[in-house]
Amino acid sequence: MTTGVWLIGARGNVATTAMIGARAIAREATVTDGMVTERAPLTDLDLPAVGSLVFGGHDIQAGSVVETAERLHERNGVPDRDTLDAVRDDLATIDDRIVTGTARNCGRTVAELTDDAAFDDETLSLREIVERIRADYAAFQENEDLDRVVVVNVASAEPMPADPDQYDSVGAIEAGLDADDPLPASALYAYAAIDDGHPFVNFTPNAANALGGIRELADRENVPHMGRDGKTGETLLKSALAPMFAGRNLRVLSWEGHNILGNRDGEVLEDDANKAGKLQSKGGVLDEILEYDTHNRVRIDYTPALGDWKTAWDDIRFQGFLGTQMKLQFTWEGSDSALAAPLVLDLVRLLAHADEQGEGGLQPHLASFFKDPLGVDEHDLSRQFDRLYEYADQHRNTSTANEETENTP
Amino acid sequence: MTTGVWLIGARGNVATTAMIGARAIAREATVTDGMVTERAPLTDLDLPAVGSLVFGGHDIQAGSVVETAERLHERNGVPDRDTLDAVRDDLATIDDRIVTGTARNCGRTVAELTDDAAFDDETLSLREIVERIRADYAAFQENEDLDRVVVVNVASAEPMPADPDQYDSVGAIEAGLDADDPLPASALYAYAAIDDGHPFVNFTPNAANALGGIRELADRENVPHMGRDGKTGETLLKSALAPMFAGRNLRVLSWEGHNILGNRDGEVLEDDANKAGKLQSKGGVLDEILEYDTHNRVRIDYTPALGDWKTAWDDIRFQGFLGTQMKLQFTWEGSDSALAAPLVLDLVRLLAHADEQGEGGLQPHLASFFKDPLGVDEHDLSRQFDRLYEYADQHRNTSTANEETENTP
Amino acid sequence: MTTGVWLIGARGNVATTAMIGARAIAREATVTDGMVTERAPLTDLDLPAVGSLVFGGHDIQAGSVVETAERLHERNGVPDRDTLDAVRDDLATIDDRIVTGTARNCGRTVAELTDDAAFDDETLSLREIVERIRADYAAFQENEDLDRVVVVNVASAEPMPADPDQYDSVGAIEAGLDADDPLPASALYAYAAIDDGHPFVNFTPNAANALGGIRELADRENVPHMGRDGKTGETLLKSALAPMFAGRNLRVLSWEGHNILGNRDGEVLEDDANKAGKLQSKGGVLDEILEYDTHNRVRIDYTPALGDWKTAWDDIRFQGFLGTQMKLQFTWEGSDSALAAPLVLDLVRLLAHADEQGEGGLQPHLASFFKDPLGVDEHDLSRQFDRLYEYADQHRNTSTANEETENTP
Amino acid sequence: MTTGVWLIGARGNVATTAMIGARAIAREATVTDGMVTERAPLTDLDLPAVGSLVFGGHDIQAGSVVETAERLHERNGVPDRDTLDAVRDDLATIDDRIVTGTARNCGRTVAELTDDAAFDDETLSLREIVERIRADYAAFQENEDLDRVVVVNVASAEPMPADPDQYDSVGAIEAGLDADDPLPASALYAYAAIDDGHPFVNFTPNAANALGGIRELADRENVPHMGRDGKTGETLLKSALAPMFAGRNLRVLSWEGHNILGNRDGEVLEDDANKAGKLQSKGGVLDEILEYDTHNRVRIDYTPALGDWKTAWDDIRFQGFLGTQMKLQFTWEGSDSALAAPLVLDLVRLLAHADEQGEGGLQPHLASFFKDPLGVDEHDLSRQFDRLYEYADQHRNTSTANEETENTP
């Protein structure tokens, strides 16, 4: 069984880092730290080997994965030189499988960042774009002789479509396609993937499979999918810390979060339209865990000096016994891509597993990976992990060996 | 059913704050924030009403609870003036029930802080001290006409006894008492309590019921007890955050903790002998959750300007994907007593409940309250909470009402 | 010589705290920490005694100084109960001298916060308002038999007038008054004060004496005045830290500042129009000291839980040897009023001194007190202090004693 | 005029980074950020060009500068690969000029870290060691045909000699040499340098030229020298921030500093004997600037994960108006070597200048470079900078051009 990974935003930082890591693991040139599926009890599952994954994808900018990797090395130090050297040829091979994608309805800022030459689809109808995407998926599967293609959206933040609830059924989505509604690119990629039976991961805050119609389609086609918005930093900490305040009956009076980041994500989020969706997907964690509304603000600012690194500073005031006001402040400093990339690989492996098991629809046991886990109300990180571990226990691999298939970039 | 609360260290900050809070709640002069038992699902249990608890205790310093309360108000602002005024008379009533305790084998620093007049027991044998403690417990129960007395140790940190494993049986403890071994005060208080059937809480890092012999005694006498070392600050955060690193396979390279505090606890912990036990009870959390040894250092320094407030600064370096080193830093600023006091009341209520149910021995469902939960290996805070919630579900109060008994200080 | 202090915004936090402090110092009920003029070498100057200052002022909200003081005590703990009790009667005396002011052209948010009853001047012309202000100043001086009245603006932030450069001469200001231009309240207060010979301090970011016409008027009338925007927190730190980066040739790549505060200032600054002036007065420090433009952003957010306390978090990235990127982060937590109030008293005393010496116009030796010191390019805090110390050396009091006049609220 | 630089600890991180930087600047492969002498007004001085400096030195460990540079690149990312490649050959050339030094009386920890083969001088008398050092200096000067050799001590921290005041005269030093007193290595290097007329910089907290006898010798021989302990991190910040508290009459109640670092300096400082000197040199800044004693503690801990990076966390509590307690906390994260190395080059250039001018003895205008500037009481950073700028103004280069001599490693 060979698993293909089709990345939307394949020349971006997260996709590139995921591919560097997968190939470096294949070549035993790096560690597997940061990958949830490389730790017990997930190691008990019969998952496709990291080294066997075959990569391809869409992007809307010119350039190459090798160039992105070089830039990541120079500006952020991740990957280091030795790792980059070890996988450079593999990345070049992958580059040949990356094709031009669509930025339809992704907002002005994304349009400006988009390479002119690449962005030639303004005359196409939504249906034509969908057909092209569908054909790209199919060509990848056929050319690389893949048993399965998992599609992962790791593109930049889009503006939310107005009134997303209007797309709550397959029929509404399809009517929207026919009418050339302002459906954003993420919805087109998701529709094409799921309609063709490709498992789908929405690692962004974008609409995609958060639309009811796409979810209905996945149920109907029995295709596994999950999202949305990878939980890699501030929200991860919220989901670990808020249960502490709740469990101790310490009343959170305010939770101020200030994020500064210097990569293209940061640049796109300078546009308020694109930021809105992001803030929305980050917002629900506290309220759900605390069970009351609190003063909860998230600032996201673009600071070029940080490169691909992200700093979150959070200031939390809480009231305890005798009305005493106390506080917690934290600073989280991480490489955005190094945090996100291993989760992309985890999700690919786990969705491939679900697909192999015939488990279509949303995958609630994957809630711990997402800021806004579709279909799941539980935001307490430890309980989300427990659901994942229960899944691992239920599907513990009983076969003799976790045989690895051929090691291909 | 009337429940008495006997506090070892009754004129200290934690005890005083607990009594202020209980009486202020009785008089509806404050909130119940910070109390775990005042939040669902614990509110479903049939617990003694906070306002009905009757307080007394031992101390080794002169002064009064009212004086401690005044000092806490002036130096720390907790309690505020209105709350203090509301309970001042109640505290004075309680003061009459506080008797001189023992500081036997508590180390040089505690001895120096001890009021000379009070500290008159150097000529007594351990057996004589135990008898006096026993008599004090009994007099309290009789004078106040109490159905049950829960004994809570909230005294300062003692040095650990040398080779505590030698006291692993009731026989060994009793031989030690007979031989006037250097058993510390906490062990004497615990022995007297449990041998007489009083539920016992060890909120300190001291030996007390951490000794195997005391635990054996509690099992034999079917007396509920739990400890040790209330989890109120840095360790609470470790137990909330470490599962996040573990679950995400992010390798913790170092966890440096620096605590500064300005109260008597801080002063006593300037003595390395007393600090050793504290550091030991804080040490196990990380190793257990992470399942590997990491560079883990805890500094505790005395900074008088902080008064009863405590600041913990923690610096955590971790390794993620592609060997990327990242970090988390946090600053926690809390009033030590305001964090600890409500937990004391919670534990009294929950031990009274266990005693009423005939559930003797250690109480693993109370693990979330302690840095070093006796008999429990689980340090993940969310899972510790889950055990408490399961207990609440199993014992859900089916009686018509959670009637409050008479409201007495 | 008796000095009167007329406060614009007299029932606000800063004014109230200044009056509490002055009266508590008069009654020897507090320390003089935080007052620059109570430290060598400023103590060598012949300044009016703090205890001799007589207070009055304008405000646009109903209420009383006593009520503000009570609220500050309850919500922020500053002042404490004993200090408040010591000065309550003095504050009540002062309350009788506070009259209704104007909020003309202060923006929508200030208007909404303004007490309806008080805000009755919409039908008045600017000239009529100025006359009323002038009369209020004069009545205060006469009623209290004052040798001198120093006027201090400590009101909320206003929107800047459009194109402030149009008011660069006395003639232009007066034409604006005649034409009922949208000149903001601060300009009216400043014009009335300086035209009548009252020394004037602009502790706010508002236009007031930052307008060229007001400065020309002060030069013509030889009235000492200074501003603008008291330097109490983040900007104070910038002026202390930026010279370190500059002197060490460490290139500042970005300086991100995030301020959260919970008082009325914070509420008013939620309005972007009012915030603009504030951000402008904060902006110049870095560029002037560093001598190059850097990525420099200041966020100000309203977080009610903080009350009168302010937290500034700053993240500074800088480049050193071999292009190494390093960083400094700081968190500053102060009571806004406790930081500002002593400087108000310092400035009153120093302007009274200048007036006594016949030193009219801007007072560059007072640059250290302001975020945007009018007429001064030097932002290095140590050098600003040095100018103040030189002034003290030049005017060292040679008279026998620094006699205090009568001690009156 | 060719200037040689003789580094004690030449294979250490600071020395290696200084040499990498100097050679990279020579080859125009890096920026000059972090160098004080590369910024106005220091650029007005007629200083030896950075690219013309010729390096050699002593060390007590085997290995090579190239190996240190490789390790710094791999573990800390400073220098980056391109810079390292640009200077690798130059470093190899320098390696040939590095000879075995002495670790006499440097404490047990340094001895353990010392390479056995290199450490062969236990049988030598102090006088024999001094002669060997002297010969090494002379050979370097002759072999490289240098007009001047500046000796810079950048070795690890030593224990202070007992009762250093006993060495307050040249006679006492020489008697100590004759008697084989436990004089530490730093004193031997300094004695040999100054007695032979080589300008000397003590960048460490070690005794060296802090001993009165060495200072007397430098005055007698008219040799310029300065020290001690390069001011690169926490103390730099103290000297920038403490004047702010002092000038504003904000009373510092406590200043807690916690430093964690992962390089060999950190390892050596785990030894309390070696740490004592370090803490002493850091201690004086606050007391001198504040003019009163405050609670001032500095912790230094070894955290291997940090490599050559250092994190300082400082917590400062201060009292302001109305006795209000407020606080400042900062976190400083820097590459120790990247902060120190440019200052080493600055000091070499400035001492060479002083020597050329015939200005012997201590150099108070260099106070800003040191934690404990010998012979200078001024610790206010801005005022220290002002003394340096005054020196630059006085010696402004009037010659036609600042001609660079030949560019040699």
Automatic annotation (TrEMBL), chains A, B, C, D:
<protein>
    <submittedName>
        <fullName>Myo-inositol-1-phosphate synthase</fullName>
    </submittedName>
</protein>
<dbReference type="InterPro" id="IPR036291">
    <property type="entry name" value="NAD(P)-bd_dom_sf"/>
</dbReference>
<dbReference type="GO" id="GO:0008654">
    <property type="term" value="P:phospholipid biosynthetic process"/>
</dbReference>
<dbReference type="InterPro" id="IPR002587">
    <property type="entry name" value="Myo-inos-1-P_Synthase"/>
</dbReference>
<dbReference type="Pfam" id="PF01658">
    <property type="entry name" value="Inos-1-P_synth"/>
</dbReference>
<comment type="similarity">
    <text>Belongs to the myo-inositol 1-phosphate synthase family.</text>
</comment>
<dbReference type="GO" id="GO:0006021">
    <property type="term" value="P:inositol biosynthetic process"/>
</dbReference>
<dbReference type="GO" id="GO:0004512">
    <property type="term" value="F:inositol-3-phosphate synthase activity"/>
</dbReference>
<dbReference type="InterPro" id="IPR013021">
    <property type="entry name" value="Myo-inos-1-P_Synthase_GAPDH"/>
</dbReference>
<dbReference type="Pfam" id="PF07994">
    <property type="entry name" value="NAD_binding_5"/>
</dbReference>
<feature type="domain" description="Myo-inositol-1-phosphate synthase GAPDH-like">
    <location>
        <begin position="233"/>
        <end position="337"/>
    </location>
</feature>
